[in-house]
Write a structure and sequence with these properties.
With 378 residues, this protein is an alpha/beta fold. It is 37% helix and 20% strand.
């Protein structure tokens, strides 16, 4: 049903895209709608008439927006398309190299940094060892150095890399306050509790910075990349956490603390976890991995995943992280076996399980790019 463009929330055009609002105060919102359609259209491009139809904006508003985008180098002509009547229509495309974002994965023992264009394509990447317990000054210096090196080098011959990036997205183990960019008690590194990472790094780099949990960043990257519906991304690396996507949006919770999956207790008298509890999924999983019992680690991960599926009724479970990538078939098979057995007992259809790339640094870059294209979960 084609509704009138009388507000932002809940109004949708004929193709399911959120309707724009023809108000000067919401120019950036409308621009984001147009940019997202340009990006979705790819190299083939899209006409101004189609942009108006899909956004609900007037042709005049679309012409003004696209004129600004062309002047800024963000859009360009992609040729002409035959029309059903009248002269052929000019089609426009996004210029991916006109802007860039930086994504940082700040792990307990290393930092990974990527430079991506507006399409989210990686044009350069760096990786370096890191000790998250070395203190704020040392960690910030290492991160800032890696980001600056990437910005300086950029992509050979790529236009636009001489401009400052749109921003830097930083993903690291939680818990943390996504809204304020302040860390909480990172498991194993309590000294980071209360540290204002976002503001401290923004001062060093001179560009906007967004901070989120590594699992949320990876889940956002997967959602932007086409993983629709509701799913849980379980990341097993130096720790264990979950990124939850419900109805296409990253679910962070009222206090941005959702997804602390690794610290659900499943064995009351189990081994002590770094969080202070006993028998957490994380402690049991990592303990089994350390003993070389990968199958047992997968079974434990499956038990935790089963609790999550029963609680949220999600569409599928995706697995990632360095530890999973070390033996993907064993982890996929082990988690799937637990979930399938649970589904048989309940008389339900089994929930699909598969291993995905889940590159955290690339997802961190989407923390910057998603709002540019009108996605509010960036």
């Amino acid at each position: 049903m084609n509704r009138t463009n009388d507000g932002i929330g809940g109004a949708y055009g004929t193709h399911g895209a959120p309707l724009g609002v023809n108000l000067l105060a919401l120019r950036s919102h409308n621009t984001a709608l147009v940019l997202d359609l340009l990006r979705t259209a790819g190299a083939e491009g899209i006409s101004r008439l189609e942009l108006a139809e899909r956004t609900g904006l007037t042709p005049q508003a679309v012409s003004k927006i696209t004129a600004r985008l062309r002047a800024d180098g963000l859009a360009a002509e992609a040729g002409r398309r035959a029309s059903t009547g009248g002269k052929p229509r000019t089609v426009l495309r996004l210029v991916p190299e006109a802007g860039h974002a930086v994504g940082v994965h700040l792990d307990r023992d290393e930092v990974r940094v990527v430079l991506v264009d507006l399409d989210g394509t990686v044009v350069d990447r760096r990786r370096a060892p890191l000790d998250l317990g070395a203190g704020a000054d040392a960690v910030l210096a290492r991160v800032a150095g890696a980001v600056e090196a990437l910005r300086t080098r950029g992509a050979p011959g790529a236009a636009g890399t001489d401009r400052p990036p749109l921003g830097v997205g930083v993903a690291l183990p939680g818990p943390l306050d996504h809204d304020r960019g302040v860390l909480h008690r990172v498991t194993g590194f309590p000294e980071w509790d209360g540290f204002p990472l976002r503001d401290a790094l923004a001062r060093r780099l001179g560009v906007p910075v967004v901070v989120d949990k590594d699992t949320n960043a990876a889940a956002l990257g997967l959602a932007v990349g086409g993983e629709g519906g509701s799913f849980a991304y379980l990341h097993l690396g130096t720790g264990l956490g979950a990124g939850l996507v419900i109805g296409g949006n990253v679910h962070r919770g009222a206090r941005t603390g959702a997804g602390e999956f690794g610290h659900q207790v499943i064995q009351l008298d189990g081994p002590r976890c770094g969080c202070g509890e006993r028998g957490c999924v994380e402690a049991l999983c990592l303990g089994a991995v350390a003993r070389g019992e990968t199958g047992e680690a997968a079974r434990v991960l499956g038990v935790g995943a089963g609790n999550l599926v029963g609680l949220l009724d999600i569409d599928r479970v995706l697995l990632g992280g360095r530890t999973v990538e070390g033996d993907p078939e064993v982890f996929a098979r082990g988690v799937r076996a637990v979930l399938d057995a649970r589904a048989r007992r309940a008389g339900d259809a089994p929930v699909p399980v598969r291993v995905v790339g889940g590159e955290v640094a690339e997802g961190a870059a989407q923390l910057v790019l998603a709002p540019v294209f009108g996605r509010g979960d960036g």
